[in-house]
Amino acid sequence: MLKKNVHKTICSYCGVGCGILVEKDAKGVISVEGDPDYPVNKGMLCSKGKNLNYVAQDLSDRILYPEMRWSRNHPMQRVSWDTAIDRAAAVFKSIIEKHGPDSVGFYVSGQCLTEEYYLVNKLTKGFIGTNNIDTNSRLCMSSAVVGYKKTVGEDAVPISYDDIELSDCFLIAGANPAWCHPILFRRIEMHKEKNPNVKIIVVDPRKTQTCASADLHLQILPGTDVILFNAIARWLIEKKKIDKSFIKKHTANFDACKESAFQLSIRQAADLCGISADDIRKAAQYIGNAKAFISMWTMGLNQSVIGVSKNVSLMNLSLLTGQIGKPGAGPFSLTGQPNAMGGREVGGMASLLAAHRDLGNPHHRKEIEEFWGGKPIKSEPGLTATEMFDALDSGKLKAIWVICTNPIVSMPNAHKVEKALEKASFVVVQDISHNSETTKYADLVLPAAGWLEKDGTMTNSERRISYLPKVIDAPGEALPDAEILWKFAQKMGFTGFGYNNVSEVYDEHCLLTKGTEIDISGLSHQRLIKEGSFQWPVPHNTHKGTPRLFSDRRFFTNDHKSHFNAPHKIYNQSEKTSPEFPLILTTGRVRDQWHTRTKTGKVKRLLTHIPEPYLEINKVDAYLRQLKDGDVAIIKSIRGQVQVKVKVNFDIRERVVFLPMHWGKVLNNDFGRANNITNDLVDPVSKEPDFKYCAVEVVKYEKP
Ligand code: SF4
After folding, report:
1. Where in the numbering of this chain does the 4Fe-4S Mo/W bis-MGD-type domain appear (predicted)?
2. Which numbered atom of ligand 1 lies nearest the CA of 594?
């Protein structure tokens, strides 16, 4: 039984989704600790989660009132909510009247709660009449969404965290969970400590902290993942380490997978990947001999110009070995953000429709149109993240509404994004913090309530839906994002937004899922509060949830089989290196920072780990450039430059360098912003940017 002043909630950082107990004392001071009863973390929290109380109580950077400027030459001034919403509606109406509904767009975040995601999606697709609603989740897992749809017929993660303790082989590719999903990785480590026969294979051009627990580190050249996975597939097929019965009964397109896998010999693949053929065979052996095999991946596969090919070639390994729909097995895409999965449920992307319905399917569109009672929904996908900023630059998009994300720091080719926002006719930024550099480009700033200041739901990486209660009041005049959205919709004159609370929004979302693969019509806020978290689907109100999908080996495809896919591209299609830019830059996260540091940057304790941006460079490359550890270097690409200190080691491959992505301005300039130099090439299907590969050169900084 919880004490009256203790509340159960969920961490607002990563997609692991740890349970937190928040205690509020008599003076209103908050403390946090891991929830020992929550099935995800069983009381554990990582450094970021442990320090959430500081973030929640530090109001120094908070946006307290709506602020507005009448034109770009005028300063921002405080206004009332009525004035702010009137202005937003008036400008949106006038732009839509003049240029049509596709001249406006919303760019939102995987940190939004499901109810907020649902509302902005309904507002945009169902009432404004454009599909221009996309999210920063496009930057982290849209390639996995496409991979799952192609393989199992739906964007559906088949397994649970509880499968970790039932598995005896993990292939962790393009991910550093020891730093980026720490509590999940701790579960893998503890499982291996108890069961030394458990094998961990890590695929990464860098020797990260995750490699410390690995039995095998495949330090491949960036962009060669598909070649590696195909080589493993070839070995499994040749050595008859495949599940023939599963393939025959429950899969389609095996021949396409085989043909793709046999394009290269294992020796050729090893040469192209820059690793030994024996190591490829060893990895394949671990997988082929496993009783239960889990593949796990994040940005290293997803953030690629061939991200979908990387995803399907990895998923092929689970299908070949029949390692899906059974205990301890399956392909497991880890989400980076706390509610990336919830956003996918409500169709919160330009290419998706609510409740996992298909935007291209006229029957699905009709169902949603009738349910919402709004305008006809367009069949063509709207502008995706990078396309939205391109369209602002070209003038096709006139107005953008940014919610809870900081594209000025997080988008690739950041100077282009700055230029695009300067060109926009009208920019609305709805956020909690002035620390977001994007607020500087806003014509209208709307103060949003933050974590603990509003209620709603989130879904973590294992499809687990949890309720987050309101514990404290929002500062100043900040409002919950959902309330801001429904006030705007009402002002626009749209019906169907007369909500009294977010519980009503959630009920509507749940009802819309009825009869679909993600049916959660058995859920409500009340049930989540009373009974705790559930994994979807939860099709009726006594259903206990679904920890594992496909136990019956019936997949969500039309033929109910899982589908092998020949990767569209085997060879990388990224920007080419050249004599001028001979090194490959890859970007990523560090342990104690989160996204663009609008929250973690405020916590002194988190700055003790890595206080400033840096470039990781191999000793050989550093030597050739006369750089030693701690020197300042300039990293240049065709798009711009970054200036940071170097960390010299042998942990990163030669000709590869790494920059963390979190920093924007350092010492009041943008020299630490990795995205000054990244490129905005995208995967042609998932439209996810190629953050993990661009051509750069590094030179020593000499004081003028
Ligand atoms: Fe929060 Fe992720 Fe750390 Fe868990 S692992 S405490 S969800 S940041």
Report:
1. 4-60
2. 8
Pocket test for ligand 1, best of 11, 51, 334 (most atoms within 8 A of CB): 11
The pLDDT tens digits of the residues spanning 641-672 come to 999 999 999 999 999 999 999 998 765 677 89
Q: 182 CB less than 6 Å from ligand 1?
A: yes
pLDDT tens for 114-161 read: 999 999 999 999 999 999 999 999 999 999 999 999 999 999 999 999
Pairing, β 583-588 against β 656-660: parallel
Show which of 35, 57, 79 is a domain's final residue.
Answer: 57
What CATH number corresponds to the domain at position 176? 3.40.228.10
Q: Residue 688 belongs to a domain with what CATH number?
A: 2.40.40.20
Average pLDDT over residues 374-381: 96
Give the pair of three-digit tokens for residue 465. 């839906």
> Is there a domain that residue 248 lies in?
yes
Overall domain count for the chain? 4
Our mutation pick for probing the ligand 1 site, out of 14, 185, 460, counting the most ligand atoms within 8 A of Cβ, is 14
Decide: 233 and 313 in contact? Cβ < 8 Å: yes
Nearest of 164, 172, 188 to residue 300 by alpha carbon: 172
For residues 341 and 156, give the distance between their C-alpha atoms in angstroms, rounded to a whole number: 9
One domain, residues 311 and 169: yes
The range of the structural domain enclosing residue 378 comes to 67-139+338-499
Six token digits for residue 257: 């997978």
Contact 32 CB / ligand 1 (< 6 Å): no
* Nearest Cα residue to 567 out of 225, 86, 267: 225
pTM value?
A: 0.96
Q: In a mutational test of the pocket of ligand 1, which residue from 44, 48, 335, 591 has the highest number of ligand atoms less than 8 Å from its CB? A: 48
Q: d(Cα 363, Cα 382) in Å, to the nearest integer?
A: 19
Residues in the chain: 704
Q: Are 156 and 145 in contact (CB under 8 A)?
A: no
Asked if residue 52 has its Cβ within 6 Å of ligand 1, the reply is no
Q: Please write the tens of the pLDDT for every residue from 313-369.
A: 999 999 999 999 999 999 999 988 899 888 989 999 999 999 999 999 999 999 999
Instruction: Measure 122 CA to ligand 1 centroid, in angstroms.
Output: 30
Best CA proximity match to 14, nearest among 691, 437, 450, 595:
595
ipTM over 0.90: yes
